[in-house]
Amino acid sequence: QQQVKQSPQSLIVQKGGIPIINCAYENTAFDYFPWYQQFPGKGPALLIAIRPDVSEKKEGRFTISFNKSAKQFSLHIMDSQPGDSATYFCAASSRGSGYSTLTFGKGTMLLVSP
Amino acid sequence: NAGVTQTPKFRVLKTGQSMTLLCAQDMNHEYMYWYRQDPGMGLRLIHYSVGEGTTAKGEVPDGYNVSRLKKQNFLLGLESAAPSQTSVYFCASRGQASGNTIYFGEGSWLTVV
Questions:
Q1: Are strands A10-14 and A108-113 parallel, antiparallel or unpaired?
Q2: Do B102 and A102 touch (CB under 8 A)?
Q3: Does B82 touch chain A (CB under 8 A)?
Q4: In angstroms, rounded to a whole number, what is the distance separating the alpha carbons of residues B58 and A55?
Q5: Which of A77, B85, B87, B103 would be a feasible disulfide site paired with B36, CB 3.0-4.6 Å?
Q6: 3-state DSSP helix/strand/coil % of chain A, to nearest 5
Q7: Contacts of residue B58 in chain A, CB cutoff 8 Å?
Q8: Residue A9 CB-half CA count within 13 A
Q9: Angle at Cα B98 formed by Cα B58 and Cα A104, nearest 5°?
């Protein structure tokens, strides 16, 4: 049972475009939603995270939008650059588990063309 | 500051051989994790540990064993490697003082032939 569904699997945008990656979750106990960024040959690294008490969070060119009623959250990358080309993973965790583990989506490969 | 270090980085095994992947972290983190990453499957949790001397099963534990004898080290063992265990393995750690951020190593590429 996949608890965090991520789409699309891959995405190509032109430089300056705004790629959007979507995730949906099933477990209503989830209350921490991070996004991780992974470059080829490297391990994932935390990009930005949100909790369900806010509907949006911005850090630089990266924005998370959160819809608690729909159990969905998405990552927007403003003014995307070729250096943003990477695989992006959404994830979820819960206080009930002590935030001990993260459940990841399957990832989105983003290519930003020059 | 090294962070999370995995050894070896690359390894080729024959079916039935055994091996151990070593993970070391220098951040004094309580939690440590082993994930595997396969194309189209994302990151799947194999085993994890919430502290020295403790381990727990994740989503895909079969065929793997782990040990956390020291706080800074988390070992992943394959007793009898199978081609289905060909994957990229990531170790990760998290500290209570660092909030919910999980820090990953750079991965270990394992091929079983």
A1: parallel
A2: yes
A3: no
A4: 30
A5: B87
A6: 5, 55, 40
A7: 101
A8: 4
A9: 35
